[in-house]
Please model this.
Amino acid sequence: MPYEHGRTAQRLPAWLRRPIAHSGEYRAVEGLLEELHLSTVCREAKCPNRGECYASGTATFLIAGDVCTRGCRFCAVETRVPQPLDAGEPARVAEAVARLALRHAVVTMVTRDDLADGAAAHVAATIAAIREAAPGVAVEVLVSDFGGDETAIDTVADATPDVFNHNLETVPRLYAEVRPGASYGRSLRVLARVKERAPEMPTKSGLMLGLGETHDEVVSVMRDLRAIGCDLLTLGQYLRPSVKHLPVAEFVTPEAFAALAREGYALGFSGVASAPLVRSSYHAAELAEGGARA
Model:
C-alpha cells in the first residue's frame, strides 16, 4: 500500500481533533507534579494526549531539567543554558511513581550536552530510585544520544531499565533540517550499543511522520532498526508546536499508519504503535507487553 497523505493545510483533519480531557485524575496528577516540582514531557512538549494521560492517572516524567541544549526544529521544549542537575529529582520522581501506583513508569530527559556524561548517571539514579520506592514497577527510559558516548550509554543500560528507548525521529534525508546537531548514524548506534551490552533488553524507537518523508524512506528506517535488533516501534503524526517550528508538510491518514504497522510486524518488530496521535510514551505499557495501537 502506498504512503498516503491527507491535506497539506495546517488546519487539523477530523482524525486529529479530540476534546480536552480534564476529568478523572487530571487535577490530582497536576497537583502531585506541582507539589513535587516535577516536569513532564506531556506539558513541556505540548503533547496532544496530555489530558487523556493525566485523566487516567499517569504522566511521562521529564528529568535533568526542563530546557534542552539542542534546538531541534520540531520540539516545543525550550532551548537555553540549563540549570545544574537537581540531585533530589530522582527521589521525587520515584515518590510520584509510588503515589500514582504506576505499573509502567516512563522517564524521558532533555539533552544535556553541557555535562560530561550527558546526565547518564542522573538517569541511572532515577531508575534505581524508582526500583527502591516502587518494587515491581516496569521502568522505561527515553534518552538522548549522549553525543555518542558509549560509556554514558552503558551507564544507563547497566541500570537495567525494562525498556530502553531512543527516537530516530525522522528519516536520514531530513536530519539536517529537523534535527540539527544530531546524526542518524549516531542515533542508530545508541540502540545498537544497548543490544551489544544487554542483548535481552527491549529497545524501542519512534518516528514522526508528516515532515516530508516518503513511504519508502520510512520503511528503510524500519529495516535499519530491525537490522540492529530494535524490538518496539512508534509512529505518529508530527504536529507543529508553534509558528517558530517546522510546518507540517502532510497529514498522514489513519489508513497509511495502519499499513505501516502491518509492514512493521512483517519486518519482525514485537510491538508497533502506529496511529496519528501515537507518541513515544503513549500506552507504553501495552506496547511493551506486545499490544499494538494502530
Summary: DSSP finds eleven helices and ten strands in the chain. The chain has one domain: 14-288. The domain at 14-288 is CATH 3.20.20.70 (TIM Barrel). The chain has a mean pLDDT of 87.
